[in-house]
Amino acid sequence: MSTKQKDIQIPDFRFTPTIDKVGVEERVARIQTRSIKGESKIQGMKMVLNMIDLTTLEGKDTPGKVKQMCYKAQHLHEAYPDCPTVAAVCVYPSMVKIAKEALGNSNVKVASVSTAFPSGQAPREVKIMDTKFAVEQGADEIDMVISRGKFLSGEYNFVFDEIAAIKEACGKARLKVILETGELVTLDNVRKASEIAMYAGADFIKTSTGKIQPAATMQVTYVMLMAIKDYFNKTGIMIGMKPAGGISTSKLALHNLLMVKETLGENWLDNHWFRFGASSLANDVLMQLMKSKTGVYQSGDYFSLD
Amino acid sequence: MNKNQSTKWNLDPAPESAGHVQLKTQYELFINGKWEKPNSGKYFDSINPANEEKLASVAHADENDVDKAVKAARHAYENVWSKLSGKERGKYLFRIARLIQEKAREFAVIETLDGGKSIRESRDIDVPLAANHFFYYAGWADKLEYAFPNRPVKSLGVAGQIIPWNFPLLMAAWKIAPALAAGNTVVLKPSETTSLTALKLAELIEESGLPAGVVNIVTGYGDTGSAIVNHPDINKIAFTGSTNVGKMIQKAIAGTDKKLTLELGGKSANIIFEDAPIDQAVEGIVNGIFFNQGHVCCAGSRLFVQEGVAETVIQKLKDRMDTLYVGDPMDKNTDIGAINSKKQLETISKYIQIGIQDGNEIYQSNCALPSNGYFCKPTLFIDVAQSSQLVQEEIFGPVLTIQTFRTVDEVIQKANNTPFGLAAGVWTDKGSKIFNLTSKLRAGVVWANTYNKFDPTSPFGGYKESGFGREGGLHGLEAYLG
Amino acid sequence: MTRLSVLKTYKIYIGGQFPRTESGRYYSPLDAAGKPLANVCLSSRKDLRNAVVAARKAFGGWSERAAFNRGQILYRIAEMLEGRRSQFVEELMLQGSSEKAANQEVDLSIDRLVYYSGWTDKYQQIFSAVNPVASSHFNFSVLEPMGVVGVVAPQNSSLIGLVSTIIPIVAGGNTVVVLASEKLPLCAVTFAEVLQTSDVPGGIINILTGTEKELIEQFGSHMDINAVLYAGDTAENYKTLQVLAADSVKRIVKFKLNPSDETAENPYLIQDFQEVKTTWHPIENIGGSSSNY
After folding, report:
1. B51: exposed, middle or buried (C-beta count within 10 Å: 0-12, 13-18, 19+)?
2. Closest partner residue to B473 among C129, C146, C282, by Cβ?
3. Could you identify which of A87, A118, C44, C231 might form a hypothetical disulfide with C23, taking C-beta atoms 3.0 to 4.6 angstroms apart as the criterion?
4. Does A32 touch chain B (CB under 8 A)?
5. What span, in angstroms and rounded, lies between the C-alpha atoms of B454 and B460?
6. How confident is the model at residue B3 (pLDDT cuts 50, 70, 90)?
7. Which CATH number among 3.40.50.2300, 3.10.290.10, 3.30.200.20, 3.40.605.10 corresponds to the domain C41-130+142-274?
8. What confidence score (pLDDT) does residue B6 get?
9. How far apart are CA C135 and CA C129, in angstroms?
């Protein structure tokens, strides 16, 4: 268990707060009626760009593909004045070294998935080795997956201990815990898994691997944000949030951002505390920014695909 | 500082356009399918409560005008409407529903300009529900014999309908649609502060080709309403408004054969148990009391929180209140718009003063209010006594009282300890507890794990001094059949 | 040798007890020949108040009884009435009915009790609704009794008028305070004796004798009466009732039917004293093809 958790009493995870799904849907729908226009839209999109973890997690990934993505990560922002870079690139452990070298001295971080991503179906020792390998290769952040099978069969202590063990293996790297909410099925489970992850030592909680649908719906993200808020109110510790998978338009990203503002508040509007796991979102944000600048609707042909 | 007005990221104003809206400078009375000047020659101003600017002049109907309207309605009833088949009546109503949908945005904008409610609510709630209400009752018009088994279908005649200012178009729909479906004709009076959407509805009805005199709309103050109530040739009175006026109407029609339905005030309890889905309950509290600036007869204005979660709930509620956008009703992001009138703002302010003087703990949203217009900060009073005026009387504004409780019995008793009985909310994860409470709370509508939901199929109306009769659904037909 | 018969003292019925009126007053209704029938209690406003207290106390328990059980109890009243039919026939004849008419009235009254005993667990099914709202909620409306209901019984009927007005109200779970016919009060008091020997818990039906004129204002203004059924025939009293009722938004219903007619038995007379309660609850749609989660 990490040092920060020393004085915190671990709750009984069988009795986490219940969630009413219809109420969550209504709350999210309210946020989605918000109109984000003009300067606030441009400012919001810049923030979104700055929070993106540019991601490639394919079996067919090659050093070439990863290098191209890293190049894009460093130059994307040049298309538009005062644009920030993306937050990080997210790759498999085998690609960490290549990404690290390709990014050089830039402030773009390297995140690596680990723990037998995406299924997590491996013995704990393997997961720990997987994590340590990624960290040794230079990963700044580790995106682990929880054992959903164990969670669904009620073995919350197993899930908790595993996260704590991986946290220890992370060393200085920040740990993002992927709940894979599409497999947890209910929002009650999402809430419970969020609490287990935070109390076990997560620095971030993350919705999905991107391999399972549905992924980062606003409903799921909302429930996780409220879990973070309650955890913060109890412990004073800030936890980061990363919706991943399914957020491909600027509009959806902006509504996610507004949701963060209306739940956790402004302190979380920063890529240290909030990330988008996405691959195609960056291009859409750029297109929207260009549209704002020129007043002309844009075509995908003018924005690089990698 | 308003927590909305952050240093990091603020939303730009997003005003809804009013460019496509057609408003006349002066409105006459809609009688017998024609626009008639008022007998007195008098007009009053309809004001935008968000900036205190005049929107239009509206005719003030007197007894003679009402008499003319009733005669037109009677003539239309005897000669046209009662002779028409249910199918044809229904088709007119379907047509009206469709026309409202076509002009939805215009209605929403006028509703917001005239009444002060946020454009989000008039666009997403009031106007669609009004259209849906016509659509729902349109379908009943030729199926009435299925509604009440073994009872012959008989319309009543001329219905006099008086509606309030909190949901102007929606209340007009609630009144007109079932009346017409059941074969009656109508004389309707909107509130003097919010006549414009009813008058736009009259224009729409004109456009629909509805036979002249089936719907008559007379604008004016209480004296106009009283002329309707006391008119000898009216068969039914339907009133939505304050309990005091409801009692006056009940007295006024004593000894006559007029059928009466009253939808009056409320002081509804919203009850949060320890095992509730707390974050959704907080949303329900907010929606319960701050919806439409609290100008809602069924507003969840008395919050009861079980002691074990009281602190958490109140903290979350305060946090949530600080994220509400209060201000220009025409801004698409506004959650809480303008108080409907200067008079109402004074009433609300009076109660807030009473609450402060009584020494209750007060919390108000951390927000700046516009300098013009009538606005009120969302307000909580914490640990208020059951005997307090704030708990006993309807405030009709964004003011919530909070009381804590320990046991189920205690909260049922306190919740029922009021002359009103319109609505109640219950928040718990336990089904058996929900059914226990929903059956013991003396209220016409019980929202369990939700609040302030409305639907044309769902009957609405109160117990005790909250009135009698139901509007909406199959049960809403009963008020318009003999 | 003729035996001196024992005359009956006609008392009122409150909370399952037979007190005399607290006012100590009486009046003497006359028979068809103009001879006094008996000394009957002239109930006062305080008697009415006591009756309302008893009715309010009994309301919770009665309204929460299973509908089936209420039906059984109403049926039991019919059984008891059947057993004592000759007494009612006699009283009806004393009050001016022919023997044939008296027998018919008692028959009809018994049958009417049986009719409503069968409705107790059915009217809910006829008048309730599941409302298909457009949002993701389960929404249903049920009937609930209004509470304490005052009844001014028909003047021109001694038994069938009483039964036809109070039984549908009680069948629906309300409790009743009834003012019997001023001119023809005897059967009402005897009916109370039937009630007491049935399984009807005290306080559910409270029976007063006296004058409409004296008590009508109390029926109208009493803040703890939820509704009143007026079956009298005095327009002025009806208006007074309505005016006073407004102060507590009391529900006032006029009984316009002829109790001897078969149209005077229908479930709408139960529904008249029911509130409609609508309940909403969210439906959590998870899984399946419609899931957007």
Report:
1. middle
2. C129
3. C44
4. no
5. 8
6. very low
7. 3.40.605.10
8. 62
9. 17
